[in-house]
């Protein structure tokens, strides 16, 4: 195949970047601020626009309603600022975990006031989505308990079911709901949506426009994520991904920094599903990272380029040959078909694609040789001081 044969696959592999990935964040043990970090939605969209200009792969930006839409600011104004930076507002992420009222959960809380506030917030988020032209409403719930006996797990299940159904039906026909799962943290005894099976169950019960969101960092050690992805795809329940990598838990490390072969196998299952005729065009590829130590824009660009490389490698798998080896139960032959693609050098194809788009051949090198970071390091502390802010806005 010629390099240009792969261009359509790269064109369609668009990766949404998170506004929160450009702001200062930390862990529960502290936050290390960066002078160049974004602290306003304008700065986050400026950074997202830069990543898109350098990579050519990130036309949409995921927003977190609590951090990106201040009361009284018209959401369509935010959409206009995004357009000025060459990007669009993508998925709307409600925040159902930081307000004090959510101490015992949001829509699953025994506290009815919390459940009502959660519903009002979600209805507000749906209106924001209408104003920004977003078609994804992406839910992550911290809901859960910390001790055995703390609450009635099945009562919580029924509250979650009722809420998601109500919210699903409140969405415009053009909107899809993504239900994310996570085995633990911040809840340490049980999380109400703890795994892919529960997320798929809740999504199915909510309605036809509810799908599962797979955050690659949200699995217990040893989980076979590509198996989960293949299964959800075959059930037409895969809504999309939050890309990051992990060594121990939900570490939010740069995608592929710990286990690139695992990411490649996920992408191989997607390409296999596509070869079987499954429509994979609606799968939302999104990044969910907010690095405590790495410079924000560099880390985001690393993830984007890594995702493109691993996806392209998965596109190289000779699946006809693979099926042949599988049919003959030739384990080594089958495995070598995957390994051959994984170890292939896809940089020539990527560079040809970038050249055809007028993009920098090495986006990260171009960024590091530019004055983009230095300019932000000079301007942004002054901006924060002028606004009377201390560094560190954004994540908890
Ligand atoms: C945290 C959660 C979850 C969520 C993200 C953005 O673990 O991944 O999607 O915040 O709200 O990483
Ligand atoms: Mn996530
Ligand atoms: Mn997470």
Written description of the protein model:
The protein is α/β, with parallel strands linked by helices and 396 residues long. The protein is 47% helix and 12% strand. It has one domain: Alpha-Beta Barrel (TIM Barrel). It contains 15 helices and 12 strands. The protein has an 8-stranded parallel sheet. Helix 6 (153-170) packs across helix 7 (196-206) and helix 11 packs antiparallel against helix 12 (331-342). The longest helix is centred in the N-terminal third of the chain and has 21 residues, at 112-132. It is globular, with a radius of gyration of 21 Å. The model has no long low-confidence stretch (mean pLDDT 96). Residues 93, 140, 180, 182, 215, 242, 250, 252, 288 line the site of alpha-D-allopyranose. One manganese (II) ion binds next to loops.
Key descriptive features of the protein:
alpha/beta, TIM Barrel, 8-stranded parallel beta sheet, 15 helices, globular, binds alpha-D-allopyranose
Summarize the topology:
Elements: H1 7-12, E1 15-18, E2 26-27, E3 30-31, H2 41-55, E4 60-64, H3 65-68, H4 75-84, E5 88-93, H5 112-132, E6 136-139, E7 144-145, H6 153-170, E8 176-180, E9 190-191, H7 196-206, E10 210-215, H8 225-234, E11 238-243, H9 260-275, E12 284-287, H10 296-315, H11 319-327, H12 331-342, H13 347-357, H14 363-369, H15 372-386
Parallel strand pairs: 1-4, 1-12, 4-5, 6-8, 8-10, 10-11, 11-12
Antiparallel strand pairs: 2-3, 7-9
Helix pairs in contact: 2-10, 4-5, 6-7, 8-9, 9-10, 10-14, 11-12
């Amino acid at each position: 195949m010629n390099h240009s044969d792969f261009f359509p696959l790269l064109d369609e592999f668009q990766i949404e970047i998170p506004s929160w990935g450009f702001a200062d964040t930390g862990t529960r043990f502290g936050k290390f601020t960066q002078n160049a970090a974004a602290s306003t939605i304008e700065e986050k969209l400026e950074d997202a626009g830069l990543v898109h200009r350098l990579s050519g792969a990130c036309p949409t930006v995921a927003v977190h309603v609590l951090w990106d839409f201040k009361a009284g600011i018209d959401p369509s104004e935010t959409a206009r600022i995004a357009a000025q930076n060459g990007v669009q507002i993508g998925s709307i992420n409600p925040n159902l975990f930081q307000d004090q009222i959510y101490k015992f959960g949001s829509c699953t809380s025994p506290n009815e006031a919390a459940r009502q506030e959660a519903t009002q917030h979600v209805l507000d988020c749906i209106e924001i989505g209408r104003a920004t032209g977003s078609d994804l409403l992406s839910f992550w719930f911290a809901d859960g308990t910390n001790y055995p006996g703390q609450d009635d797990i099945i009562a919580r299940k029924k509250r979650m079911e009722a809420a998601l159904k109500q919210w699903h039906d409140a969405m415009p026909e053009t909107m899809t709901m993504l239900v994310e799962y996570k085995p633990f943290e911040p809840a340490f005894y049980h999380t109400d949506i703890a795994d892919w099976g529960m997320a798929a169950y809740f999504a199915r019960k909510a309605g036809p426009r509810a799908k599962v969101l797979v955050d690659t960092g949200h699995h217990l050690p040893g989980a076979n994520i590509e198996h989960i992805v293949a299964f959800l795809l075959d059930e037409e329940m895969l809504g999309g991904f939050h890309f990051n990598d992990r060594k121990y838990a939900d570490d939010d490390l740069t995608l592929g920094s710990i286990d690139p072969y695992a990411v490649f196998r996920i992408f191989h299952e997607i390409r296999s599903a596509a070869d079987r005729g499954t429509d994979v065009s609606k799968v939302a590829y999104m990044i969910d990272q907010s690095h405590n130590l790495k410079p924000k824009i560099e880390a985001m660009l690393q993830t984007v380029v890594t995702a493109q490389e691993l996806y392209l490698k998965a596109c190289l798998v000779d699946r006809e040959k693979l099926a042949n080896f599988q049919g003959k139960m030739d384990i080594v032959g089958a495995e070598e078909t995957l390994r051959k693609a994984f170890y292939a050098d896809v940089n020539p194809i990527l560079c040809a694609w970038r050249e055809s788009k007028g993009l920098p051949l090495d986006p990260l090198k171009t960024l590091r040789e530019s004055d983009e970071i230095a300019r932000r390091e000079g301007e942004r502390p002054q901006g924060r001081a002028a606004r009377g802010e201390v560094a560190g806005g954004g994540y908890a």
